[in-house]
Design goal:
alpha+beta; Beta-galactosidase, Chain A, domain 5; 4 domains; 6-stranded antiparallel β-sheet; globular; peptide-N4-(N-acetyl-beta-glucosaminyl)asparagine amidase activity; carbohydrate binding
């Protein structure tokens, strides 16, 4: 219970300040309503330097008394409210000015010592801005279950101009079929619920209704929206709002209350009106039918954003607990309280009714549905217990777990014929009707709503560690996309959206398998990854862009938009494929992809010390004098050269060697964190985008924690042998970049599908999956005194800290000293106790983690052997050309320059028959030939697929010959033959 001892919002009747000018509030903000206070219509303007006495008060302060306020800095962020006590003392805790965001409202809480408060004082330099909601109140500590710490409104104080999460208050079961959410803009498929900016003329939050949603991100847009709208005045305050995963509730100013609880395909609403209950329904694109006598609502919705690729119709079936009557566009019920059960289906109207009857049968109470959903969340969130966390940290941590387990979503249903789904990836042009979908209905599971470029870094490793059984089920649902459509979506919303960089399901699923997740079809998952990595995609929404030539050039040229980012993501994914191939016994593939994982070296410009793009002939995009690492765009996806300079998390030693050693890598990282981001260098974007502004306002040099490509960078200090420096950055991010939960903030940028939340969860526990695709974690300084993770295998991981500070002084694992700055997954999941001793000063603790590259030499991957072929098309470095043969050919290749040892070779099939048997030979003189490799019974799974083959022993000859001895079909077509050689 919160009891106010003093409060002023600078409205009529509130205590009047002794200084400052009461006005209409900030003129503009990227996230808040302009021209008003945070609450109410007025706020206090401050712009006087020094200490200014605002209020004379006489307020007793007890054990749990604190001062709070919201502040909107326009110039400078060192402003703070202080108090003067009756003994003349003031507050001693020091506030970090970087914890305040400029041009946004910020909530600040300061504990008060016991005594009597005589004055509230404004302290600042030359700062200027606005102040509101000054409060002295008692806040006794609360004990709650993990699920009850969650705030689903975290991240909603956002807009397209500046993201504090860009979330919406989704009420759902974990990984559920539907979301249900309040909306402040019923016409939108993007920003559904804005915490403050869409407040009404009196600055009260106001809902436009309650929506069915499937939005993965506002940038992707929503689909299948359908609105339930209680008639009446829907203005409210956030203090009268409950935002939990299992229960959204609100009491409007009018006295109307609405409560919502979710099932998987269904939900239940409970409405309590001050008078007669009246409810209407709306759907921007669809059809709705209401039957007053039966008290039912049925229909379909085919609302979909531009990026909702593969979305067809969704069917709705709802039933009230009593009949009603028509009252204009609404149903009226002659009573104040009414309950609505409602369910959906992607298959048919009949299936929607089945889903309702199965999940919320008639007679089910609201409390039953709510408690079932609550228990589902508590079972997940309760697997991690924290000791020593503040209330804000508990909210941040468990809200992060909620976001993590909200996505991906299921798209399947339990039907009389078993588990089935309307496929979002099979192209089928049958028309949908008002009763059934035109999509192909297929047996099996289906997972959707995931942007793998965002989530592979932290979400998928978190699933593999915390919920491995569910992780395998989710993977199986995505593998089903491959079975049906031939590919796994890069961005599933729900089908093959053409967005973002890399085919990151490759490394995510490899990582899960290597960490012991086994309940999915790993052979099919491997095939999907192999196709991504070896076959140029037939259309834009699938596969890797630029692959038709990057395979052979060793880099992705400028002809591919943001080709450098595609190249670096490919290296990470190839690293995962190599490790998975080795685990599955595919030795040739493992050797080949291990080499390809090193291709980042071909984009490293030693003249500048940065990665940059190259023309097809190998020339760099920029000369050293024209290159600017702070310039956004061009070769870089949503970032710049600085934030891409460390995008080799799988091979930190190799990156260090490119720079000249670990000390040089440390120096590069130091420069990165010391170089300010101005947010004013848009490069190819042509204008300021929200990611630039957000990165600037993080105020950690160039480090843009506001966006996923940068999230690994502090941990790269471990590879440099300077783990303590990374620990300091991580602690600063944890303590000031995730603030604002109570006012709808909580994130410094887009919280995409749980990724930014999962970063917080991992980092606060002192673990980070830096080299995704290998089973291990880099270690850091945990945030809490004690954390205990209950694993699915019955084991427990216990993480404790002693001492204080952001640095690790010592670590003991299971009672034994542990000097390595990393720990294997196997060691963790067999049950481990990690005892960290922390310090305020950095230490030398932490030897570097293992890396793909060993030793001090720069990586030198195998390279395409230069030379002349009797069939030049087969060595023109593109799979788009081909030669066709009607009889088995013999193709010769003469090396340019001294012979180099060939270790691997690749063949790329064409559009027709492919080779099934062949002999590779070498010769010194072109007359006598030596067999180097012989194959039979080979299969190329796809057209224009590149397959690698390893020699049993490397061979260096001036001449090579490939004799095809058998092929499939009437004609043979080949696109490329490549010999991969190392240094002599």
């Amino acid at each position: 219970m919160i009891a106010d001892r003093f409060f002023s919002s600078f409205e009529e009747g509130d205590p009047v300040p002794l200084a400052g000018e009461i006005g209409a509030g900030p003129a503009e903000s990227p996230t808040a309503k302009a021209g008003v206070g945070f609450t109410g219509l007025r706020a206090l303007r401050y712009d006087r330097p020094g200490r200014v006495r605002l209020f004379d008060v006489d307020v007793p302060a007890g054990e749990h008394t604190g001062l709070s306020y919201v502040v909107f800095p326009e110039r400078g962020t060192s402003v703070a409210l202080d108090v003067e006590l009756d003994d003349g003392s003031t507050l001693t805790d020091v506030l970090d000015p970087k914890a305040l965001y400029p041009d946004q409202w910020n909530l600040v809480r300061r504990p008060l010592p016991p005594g009597r408060v005589r004055a509230i004082v404004l302290a600042g330099g030359d700062d200027a801005g606005w102040l509101d909601d000054v409060r002295i109140s008692d806040r006794p500590p609360r004990r709650r279950d993990p699920v009850d710490w969650v705030r689903t409104t975290r991240g909603t104080h956002s807009s397209s101009e500046f993201s504090r999460g860009n979330t919406f208050p989704a009420t759902a079961v974990p990984h559920g079929f539907n979301f249900w959410t309040p909306v402040t803009d019923a016409s939108s498929t993007t920003w559904l619920y804005e915490y403050h900016r869409r407040n009404d003329a009196t600055n009260r939050p106001r809902l436009a209704g309650f929506a069915l949603s499937h939005q993965p991100s506002p940038w992707m847009g929503d689909r299948h929206t359908f609105h339930v709208i209680p008639e009446g005045d829907l203005a409210f305050t956030h203090e009268h709002e409950t935002g939990r995963p299992h229960h959204y509730g609100v009491r409007f100013d009018s006295g109307l209350t609405v409560d919502l609880a979710p099932a998987d395909h269904a939900a239940v609403f409970r409405f309590t009106f001050p008078g007669e209950a009246k409810i209407r329904f709306a759907c921007k694109r669809g059809g709705i039918r209401v039957d007053p006598k039966r008290g039912t609502v049925t229909g379909y919705t085919w609302v979909r954003s531009r990026l909702s690729v593969g979305a067809r119709r969704m069917f709705v079936h709802g039933a009230f607990d009593r009949p009603g009557r028509r009252d204009g566009k609404a149903l009226a019920f002659g009573t104040a309280t009414v309950q609505l059960r409602i369910a959906t289906s992607l298959i048919s109207a009949k299936q929607a009714r089945r889903n309702l009857d199965a999940e919320i049968p008639a007679g089910t109470t609201f409390e039953q549905v709510r408690e079932d959903a609550r228990q589902a969340w508590q079972d997940l969130l309760g697997r991690i217990e924290l000791d020593g966390a503040t209330e804000d940290q508990l909210t941040t941590f468990y809200s992060g777990l909620y976001r993590l387990f909200l996505y991906p979503n299921s798209a399947h249903e339990e039907t009389p014929r078993g588990r089935r789904h309307a496929s979002p990836v099979v192209r089928r042009w049958w028309p949908s009707t008002r009763r059934r979908t035109g999509a192909k209905v297929v047996d099996g599971p289906m997972s959707v709503n995931n942007g793998f470029w965002d989530t592979y870094r932290t979400c998928w490793p978190a699933y593999a560690l915390l919920t491995p059984r569910k992780c395998g089920e989710l993977i199986e649902g995505f593998v089903q996309q491959y079975r049906e459509g031939g590919w796994i979506a890069r961005w599933s919303s729900p089908g093959y959206a053409d967005l973002m960089t890399g085919t990151s399901s490759d490394v995510a699923f490899a990582d899960a398998y290597l960490k012991g997740v086994r309940n999915f079809d790993v052979e099919a998952a491997y095939d999907a990854a192999l196709r991504n990595a070896t076959v140029a995609p037939p259309r834009r929404g699938v596969g890797r862009k630029g692959l038709h030539e990057s395979i052979f050039l060793g880099f992705t040229p400028l002809s591919t938009h943001e080709g450098l980012s595609w190249a670096l993501e490919a290296c990470i994914n190839d690293f995962g494929i190599a490790n998975l191939a080795a685990a599955l016994g595919r030795a040739d593939d493992a050797a080949y992809f291990r080499q390809r994982a090193l291709h980042y070296v071909h984009h490293f410009d030693p003249r500048t010390g940065f990665f940059q793009g190259r023309h097809r002939d190998g020339a760099w995009r920029w000369s050293p004098q024209d290159y600017d690492p702070a310039r956004w765009g061009f070769d870089y996806t949503e970032t710049n050269g600085w934030n891409t300079a460390f995008s080799v998390p799988h091979d930190g030693q190799g990156l260090a060697n490119l720079h000249g050693g670990r000390a040089a890598l440390e120096s590069k990282l130091d420069a990165f964190f010391a170089t300010p981001e101005t947010g004013r260098n848009p490069g190819s974007y042509g204008g300021i985008i929200h990611e630039m502004t957000e990165a600037r306002d993080v105020r950690l040099g160039q480090y843009g924690h506001s966006n996923q490509p940068s999230h690994h960078i502090p941990w790269m200090y471990a590879y440099a042998g300077a783990a303590a420096k990374g620990q300091a950055v991580v602690r600063e991010v944890l303590t000031r970049c995730y603030l604002g939960s109570e006012i709808g903030q909580g994130y410094p940028g887009d919280e995409d599908n749980g990724e930014m939340s999962a970063w917080y969860v991992f980092a606060s526990l002192g673990l980070y999956p830096l080299a995704v695709g290998s089973p291990g974690y880099v270690l850091g300084a945990p945030l809490f005194r004690r954390a205990e993770i209950a694993l699915e295998n019955g084991k427990h991981v216990v993480i404790t800290t002693s001492g204080s500070g952001p640095y690790v002084r010592r670590l003991r694992v299971d009672g034994e000293p542990h000097e390595q700055a990393w720990l294997s997954h196997d060691r963790l999941v067999t049950g481990a106790t990690l005892e960290f001793e922390l310090a305020a000063e950095p230490s030398e603790w932490g030897t570097p983690p293992p890396s793909l590259t060993e030793g001090d030499a720069p990586p030198r991957p195998l390279a395409d052997l230069p030379g002349r072929s009797t069939h030049p098309t087969l060595s023109d470095d593109t799979s788009r050309t081909q030669l066709t043969f009607t009889s088995p050919p013999a193709i010769e290749f003469t090396v340019d320059g001294p012979p180099r040892p060939v270790e691997l070779y690749t063949l790329t099939s064409g559009a027709h028959g492919s080779p099934t048997a062949w002999v590779l030979e070498g010769s010194e003189d072109g007359q006598t030939w030596q067999v180097l490799d012989e194959r039979a019974g080979e299969t190329f799974r796809w057209r224009r697929q590149t397959r690698p083959f390893a020699l049993t022993a490397s061979a260096a000859f001036p001449r090579y010959r490939l004799r095809i001895t058998a092929f499939s079909g009437r004609r043979l077509s080949l696109a490329q033959w490549e010999l991969l050689a190392g240094e002599r």
